[in-house]
Fold these 2 entries.
Entry 1:
Amino acid sequence: MKKREIRAPFFCVNPKAYLYGEEALKLAKAADELAKTFDIDIFFTVQYVDAYRIAKETTNLIITVQHMDALTVGAGMGYILPEGISAAGVQATFLNHAEHPIKVNQLVKTMQRAEEEGIIVIACADSIAEARAIATLKPDVMVCEPTELIGTGKVSDVSYMEQTNQAVKAVSPKTLVLQAAGISTIADVRQAIESGADGTGGTSGIVCATDPIHTLQEMVEEVTKVRDELKER
Amino acid sequence: MKKREIRAPFFCVNPKAYLYGEEALKLAKAADELAKTFDIDIFFTVQYVDAYRIAKETTNLIITVQHMDALTVGAGMGYILPEGISAAGVQATFLNHAEHPIKVNQLVKTMQRAEEEGIIVIACADSIAEARAIATLKPDVMVCEPTELIGTGKVSDVSYMEQTNQAVKAVSPKTLVLQAAGISTIADVRQAIESGADGTGGTSGIVCATDPIHTLQEMVEEVTKVRDELKER
Amino acid sequence: MKKREIRAPFFCVNPKAYLYGEEALKLAKAADELAKTFDIDIFFTVQYVDAYRIAKETTNLIITVQHMDALTVGAGMGYILPEGISAAGVQATFLNHAEHPIKVNQLVKTMQRAEEEGIIVIACADSIAEARAIATLKPDVMVCEPTELIGTGKVSDVSYMEQTNQAVKAVSPKTLVLQAAGISTIADVRQAIESGADGTGGTSGIVCATDPIHTLQEMVEEVTKVRDELKER
Amino acid sequence: MKKREIRAPFFCVNPKAYLYGEEALKLAKAADELAKTFDIDIFFTVQYVDAYRIAKETTNLIITVQHMDALTVGAGMGYILPEGISAAGVQATFLNHAEHPIKVNQLVKTMQRAEEEGIIVIACADSIAEARAIATLKPDVMVCEPTELIGTGKVSDVSYMEQTNQAVKAVSPKTLVLQAAGISTIADVRQAIESGADGTGGTSGIVCATDPIHTLQEMVEEVTKVRDELKER
């Protein structure tokens, strides 16, 4: 399968294990609408069991799983088969998230498998040293979140974001950088994109908001505003 | 959700990572028909991403995942949320398969989560000592396969099967025992049930057969023949 | 090698990774003296690299490692070879501590290896369900600490201790029970032994005390006092 | 502690879990003599429990453990504390060997801990992609063995060795490269060093030889011969 091209700036809705089934589908449909309205690429992460259904009922989203394994068709119990998720409509996967760290050799092999199947890789690092190492593997997207900020509603400071953007690009210029640590307001969204990130997004800042769909809409709209402002400069 | 009752002797089709998407669905539909025709409970294991679709398009199968995690609704990237699979129509999970061994405390916690969500647990052990330990946790079903036979097409000998059946029942009388190591012929199926197993099934014996659906039908039919013969005794 | 017999009530000094080198040796020598003076069996856990030296320079202690692996003589990088530790004077090992949980099959295999080498196994469980499962493997000693109390200075309540003692003994009457969660005063020591534990001990309650050797002496002495009182009853 | 300087070409005796206790000590003493006689740096890997004793009874060897953890002084059961091994005389550690692969974030943190304690890091990669990623972390030494050759007595071919040497040096010029896959003859030793490796060594090629000490001597001598020949060119 041919890997989908990503247009920056993009957005990433990552409900982790907060949402599943109907609720996940509802937010996905809203995100799908926003992707169309604002002409923006949106990664939407799903529980594996929801991937097929959400892929079927949406048009624009990049259906994304939160981890994938390197196994091949054959034996192996309970692992995430690349061919299987691809057939279900999945187009991207997170790898090595701080909440799902993997072994060095496993990361290398799984990225090779993703390449074979045309699956976009969003690789995560929780320090600049780790980001540099992983960047040599040329993932499509990288996330560099200081582990201690995940889930806190605190954003990485501008200097950290600039530093990680540069560290990644110095090693792998084509890798897009996602800055999403603690994003919960449109000011956070603006700051992330203005500091040079190729994408931003959130988890608790969206799913734990009073009105998740409204918050999501504001955030996505803000990304496109900054995008348009940056074009004019 | 209320846990589904299992009627012995049952059958288990475990395609592991051999099948996914359309091919998995096709075999599942055939198994579903057999479950109805022969009035037998059939566990059918799926890739997570296929669970929803197969659950929707079948009526009788016990949709089974090959592993599950203990996490709860909230954070956590890339794990198998019990609530999520349950909402997608999954009714059972394998745990601690030799190809996916887990930690002692993780097994205990995941079995508690399965109980909360009404998910049937098929717990695996690869030695009699391990079987006895796990039986204290009173899983719904236990598999006791000598690891060295998995995927070989060699069956456990009758004495091993009887020994494990007894070891499990001595600790947990209500736990059903699945003997499925290397089952590839109807003679293997007969031997497993006659030696006292509550269920049998297969992986490569079915999916690698020249005509998987035909082989599956013969095996399921044989289980019901032995069932009827045993009733008459 | 023949496995050493343990005499209850025993004591366990578990410095974890708080002490190493000279400081560990100093506390070990003090514990060794106490073992002699009070005629009591004392498990003393060591960093692997300190095992040989502490074994050489003490006489009475049961030199104990904090984890062991199941590998056999041959390949394998960086694991704890049973034959190797045994040759260095180690007589016991913790297994499956809450800070080092292991897989079910690994626990079974490692306990078999320990048996082969005559190494005493102190197996840990962090719930009653886990304790019952592990007790079927008949470890020499079991620890049942509610994970949430470890390192807190809070002791398990008497009812929890009695419940775990009974749960273990019901399954494996010869297994000795060590109650050591949050032990930091001689009152805690007394309570543990009076509630039926075969042994008690501590980590932070000793190594973080103002005068560790003095605290250790008081605790060991208290165990022997309770021992003598119980004999008289 | 100040990290020891390594002089290339060096040799590495890696008995893995083949040797322990007296036998390990005996080979270590022989290697120690050779290090002196041939004025060459020799890494000698040990079972943790043998580290102190071998360090005490040798003068020239670089006492090396086969894995190390990132934990700090305090809690933590059964892990390898950097401060502890350093105090016992250990000067180097392997990390991420194919027989002990570790997580990306664990590798990064453990290398930081090694730096803090002045412990030489020998980092392993089992593919060129992995080698490049790890080289960004600037380990002191790197091993690039195609996993499939380990323990086979087959050496990496010259082209693979040259390719990995270059891949590592391109990213981290000061990192020394150890080529040790399947080294079992003096011809293998010569080829490794002539192909540009900074060091070579072996496991089964030495410990499973009819006369390990004699084989070791021949290999070490050959390294120094090639060293002297290369100087003259």
Entry 2:
Amino acid sequence: MFFLNWSASTGWQKSRMSKITPKAAMDKPELSRRVSYEQLPDALAGVVVGCAECHTLNPETHKDSFDHNGYQVHTVVTPQDCSTCHSVEADQFKKNKMSHAYGNLEDNLLYRELTKSVTGMQSFQNMATTLQDPDELTLSDACRQCHGTSVQVEDFVVRETFYGDMEFPVLSGWPNQGVGRINPDGSKGSCSACHTRHHFSIEMARKPYTCSQCHKGPDVPAYKVYEVSKHGNIHSSLGREWDFDAVPWTIGKDLTAPTCATCHVSLVVDGEGVVVAERTHQMNDRLAWRIFGLPYAHPHPLSPDTTIIRNKAGLPLPTELTGEPVMEYLIDEAEQATRRARMEQVCTSCHSQSWVDGHFVRYENTIEKTNEMTLTATQILLAAWEKGAAKGPEQGNSIFNEAIEKMWVEQWLFYANSTRYSSAMIGADYGVFANGRWYMAKNIQEMVDRLHLKMKEE
Amino acid sequence: MFFLNWSASTGWQKSRMSKITPKAAMDKPELSRRVSYEQLPDALAGVVVGCAECHTLNPETHKDSFDHNGYQVHTVVTPQDCSTCHSVEADQFKKNKMSHAYGNLEDNLLYRELTKSVTGMQSFQNMATTLQDPDELTLSDACRQCHGTSVQVEDFVVRETFYGDMEFPVLSGWPNQGVGRINPDGSKGSCSACHTRHHFSIEMARKPYTCSQCHKGPDVPAYKVYEVSKHGNIHSSLGREWDFDAVPWTIGKDLTAPTCATCHVSLVVDGEGVVVAERTHQMNDRLAWRIFGLPYAHPHPLSPDTTIIRNKAGLPLPTELTGEPVMEYLIDEAEQATRRARMEQVCTSCHSQSWVDGHFVRYENTIEKTNEMTLTATQILLAAWEKGAAKGPEQGNSIFNEAIEKMWVEQWLFYANSTRYSSAMIGADYGVFANGRWYMAKNIQEMVDRLHLKMKEE
Amino acid sequence: MFFLNWSASTGWQKSRMSKITPKAAMDKPELSRRVSYEQLPDALAGVVVGCAECHTLNPETHKDSFDHNGYQVHTVVTPQDCSTCHSVEADQFKKNKMSHAYGNLEDNLLYRELTKSVTGMQSFQNMATTLQDPDELTLSDACRQCHGTSVQVEDFVVRETFYGDMEFPVLSGWPNQGVGRINPDGSKGSCSACHTRHHFSIEMARKPYTCSQCHKGPDVPAYKVYEVSKHGNIHSSLGREWDFDAVPWTIGKDLTAPTCATCHVSLVVDGEGVVVAERTHQMNDRLAWRIFGLPYAHPHPLSPDTTIIRNKAGLPLPTELTGEPVMEYLIDEAEQATRRARMEQVCTSCHSQSWVDGHFVRYENTIEKTNEMTLTATQILLAAWEKGAAKGPEQGNSIFNEAIEKMWVEQWLFYANSTRYSSAMIGADYGVFANGRWYMAKNIQEMVDRLHLKMKEE
């Protein structure tokens, strides 16, 4: 009964959608535009974008369409629908690994094993544990809250409504707003992961709280690091005076320190209106290194679909287990330089070149050193497998299940990771005692202790 | 010398208390009322509620009363005092487990053991530790900060004041604003736990920061989960435009996403003024399941006094050690359905029924699965006791003291718990890597490792 | 190219610096002054303080000076420069341990060992680990982000600029805003650690987010504890209405609950304009106890340079390894009483004396008890060394490297610490389950388990 949805209707009333037609939006000066269509369906040109304008788009591809007083409406509005007015952003987002977040987890055998080791039920019998495959509801409630579910029409059901009995689709994996959601129309992703319905507020998308929905845990502590950085402090202390709604976003005038969006997404200009960075919805456009989620930091993958990657050992990993990058699937140094240069354009709007140079030298050193510490942890794990202190992959066992294996995972998934984020944004303690170098160092000692204790045990 | 208390006097001046008489407050339309008395003492009807109006109430029951220029005043204003004008809320609060938070901890033998294991001093001699009973000051500084202290008049002392020498009571367990405080007048609880003196601001009570005072740690990460949820993000990003002071609280108009209070406490109405949920100060009124603080999630207890509960094994627990609920002391399925329906009324103000249905199916699955993972941990602990890897309760030992026992406690007190909160509010990583399923899975493997290592040790 | 630095120029334009001359600032009533010079260089008296006024000061001592269109300018503005107008604050800051944060870490042999154990690379060969000395870039990226780097002129480099080719200094340890930075002019510290350039906003320095930059990790969770305290809740809920810019800062009028600065730094007055506390930039001026960073809480050191301290065992520690304070280097009871009295002046502005008395009795009990729990952990560590379960200092080994030694460090650096902060500010769960007593108790049991398992191993 979303027509009596009070937050949807009032949110929408407060939104820009309710106040300007797509045509008028396109008539704005280029840098001020928030739409990017080449051609607009006639029906949309002259009206503001209300409920029906989105929820009745593309009925032919929407398997979740249902009849509503003679109109075909659908529940799940998708990037394909949004691309009607925001085609450039939708196209960029297709090149964004985030839009592939479902498949990159689900169709990578190694990640599926990791997922299973986290979400599968364990039972205890005869002094040992066994691990079952995770159920669908748990997966939807865990990894897929951020990565996205696969939303499929399972059935139709009749419900009593204000307008009489109506038939609604029954959706699997629903509700979900994960950034890599598989939609009933076959498209990938969910714009409302960041552009929360039904405000669709650019202010909200630009505030760091939005990113924190998915980027706050120990596996990806971006928000936590930002929060204690100087940038984050300025935002917390003085941000209430900033203009989060201005397009383009003018450094020094609209904001005096960056949020996540400033450095990674937004169209930003300097005080004379000169473009500092173009808007991008491919969020690694300004990033040379991929610093989280994998055992070693490495250059960004060429394709947003990372399931195609194979290292020399045949594993779907962008590096060998001992850290060497599989360059065939990764951006080369020239592309890394291009992306770093884009980011430095943003940095040098507020910082001198020597400041920025000093920063990046440190950051790349930290990437190298954290990779080294992961290698050390990996060598201990290899010794554990060799010495029989844990059951290794040679015998077809998972590499994620036993305690010492999970310690190894934390080395890179939590600690190396946190240290790199801290370096990238100067988040002080997240590189030391708050899941940083202290834990990298301690974890190695714990792994060595465990290795020797388990060897005696055999 | 609270008569020269600058924050008290200025806070009060800014409060509604200083601006409206109880009589005028009662004359408001029913849904706008913030008072609920049946009959008011004559002395209070026609004046605004200042210092004396509260601090001189019910002197006969207040053992902490003392003479102040001919008036009997008391330091500790209690729910019994507040009930003079807010009788309905005070009565509801009596049925709220929170008001029993002191006794439910103190008078439950098992919880007293847990408390001792956390707060008692440990010493090390002859290669082993011994555990002493905790001292009163430590208890007041630890568990009782939230659960409440027992505030008793220990003595009287003369102090020099602005008005000459005056005699003041010396109170045990003071200061304290714990929600289950035992007061000198015999009443239970502290309204100022949430309604911070002397603003008594409904705005503050409705903001999630108030709940975070007690509900942020790993044992009850409600605020942390809320913060990274979509609801929390909307509040952080757009909440500064909301009206936190309106009574009733209108969804869509005064607020566009819920805070803790919206779902659990407040009187909320829809855009047409229709009541969506009645105000309640029995916070489990809209909750079917009790998801924290005990080894297994279970239906809410019938009585706010949980010390009366006994399972089949004779333990003061609402489930067996293996998870079966002790239904005799718990609400039945019909009552669970009633409470869930109350909550769904709030949900469906902004979400479709299929959204809400999908959400609750997942949530109840997560309750079941987290209980299973606790059972597995319990079975490992039972094996440890049986095999002599830890000293079990059979020999009269505490079940909370040894390392492997503490690992078991973390399984349910931290990890199962966090996972359920994440499911309830869609707090993404708190159900996975931030104290969620990752830790449930890892902890089981750590317990098994420890079990085997300790068995070899013997 | 900081002359095209958009945030610097717009930040400065919004700052008080751009709006008032030092002379006019000194002509204000004494309590409203934000400057404290005795005599001002003629050149500064009659103009507002712009870029050149700071960046060209004291060229003779600034090794980082370089020629800029005929002027000698320098990059790193230092406390020595700021002292031109803020001499009293600069002098106080010299007595603040924070200004010695670089040396106190670097020139203390024991701390250097701890630093090495955290930041040095570990490698694994022949079933054992080795530890290397940390590299300079890592140190700058880790501990020194807060403690400060040593900024030295390494070289000069020519860069193309808007004004043609210019020669700039190449600085080691740059960028850095650590509070104990060693500057190119030989001075210690960085005012911009808290007074962020180029707003130099007192509002920002008074907000708790500023302190959180360095005081949020598990080693010093001051901000985290504040955030869940009643004080922090009031700030979060109602702080947006406060006046963070007023000098003096009036309790009850400008603010109704303290931030970090209120209790530890700011000049605060009561509602009648009477001084409650003088401004201080020696932040332990109102503190009797030093509660973090060392194995045992103890009275504050007499000198901000703590490298001079030696205990009876010859270690650079303010207590023995078993907890007894080395009083020769520490403030005595009279000075402790003086400092506590200064703090109580702030407390009693809003709380009764009995409230405050009760609070401090609990706090000092918690200091005693947490010291006891550290002693217990220390005794287990001593036993481990004695029994060969770890390699002790007798053989010249570090006391920080092995797993059980790191467990001991966490006992005091994280858990005792967190418990004390929680007690000091009533941060509830940080004294129990959030890195508090739960972990102190569990860690001791884990250490005992490890001790026995490692003994069997030998």
